[in-house]
Design a protein that fits this description.
By secondary structure, the protein is an alpha/beta fold. The protein has six helices and seven strands. The structure holds 5-O-phosphono-beta-D-ribofuranosylamine.
């Protein structure tokens, strides 16, 4: 039974979805040890409380450096014997210490068909692009911004009369299927 930590910075709907899928036994009996967040007021904390998932709140501003912040995370992860990290809307690049500690064991989901539209507001970038297809990508994490090896992608339409919110909604719903399905294939 693999122990897994989920990192999120914001709403946490992918976090909640993965916890629910795990609870239903769809994810090879992985154990989600805790939510890790870098914002004390992130909505994902509320979700974690409702789901009865432990929360570690660590804000980089409270540490002397990013390396110190990440060393604290590594300490906590190792205490819980975490083997895999799932990023779900975690809005920071992973630094060298954490990458070394969890080489090849960090997954991320990004709301575009990478390598298109890396970085912030990928859905806005796709919405404004004139493309009629976008989607989401699950990939391994490396030191770059959304540059790690792609594991799986799913597509959806960008409709002519879509608002950006319509598109966000469509991509999110695709992610709620894509991310658990990749987690079930990779983390055993
Ligand atoms: C998702 O769209 C994911 O692709 C991106 O951040 C968003 C997080 O959404 N990395 P939520 O916090 O899970 O609702």
């Amino acid at each position: 039974m693999a122990k897994v930590a989920i990192f999120a910075s914001g709403s946490g709907s992918n976090f909640e979805n993965i916890v629910q899928r795990a609870d239903k036994g769809e994810l090879n009996n992985i154990e989600i040890t805790a939510l890790y967040t870098d914002h004390h007021d992130a909505y994902c904390i509320e979700r974690a409380k409702k789901l009865k998932v432990a929360v570690h709140i660590n804000e980089p501003k409270d540490f002397a450096s990013k390396a110190e912040y990440e060393r604290r995370l590594i300490q906590l992860l190792e205490l819980d014997e975490v083997e895999w990290i799932i990023l779900a809307g975690y809005m920071r690049l992973i630094g060298p210490d954490l990458l070394d500690a969890y080489e090849g064991k960090i997954l991320n989901i990004h709301p575009s068909l990478l390598p298109k539209y890396k970085g912030k507001d990928a859905i806005g970038q796709a919405f404004n692009s004139g493309d009629n297809i976008t989607g989401s990508t699950v990939h391994y994490v490396d030191s770059g911004m959304d540059t790690g090896e792609i594991i799986e992608q799913r597509q959806c339409e960008i409709k002519e009369d879509d608002t950006k919110e319509d598109l966000e909604d469509r991509v999110k719903h695709l992610e709620y299927e894509l991310y658990p399905s990749v987690v079930a294939k990779i983390i055993k």
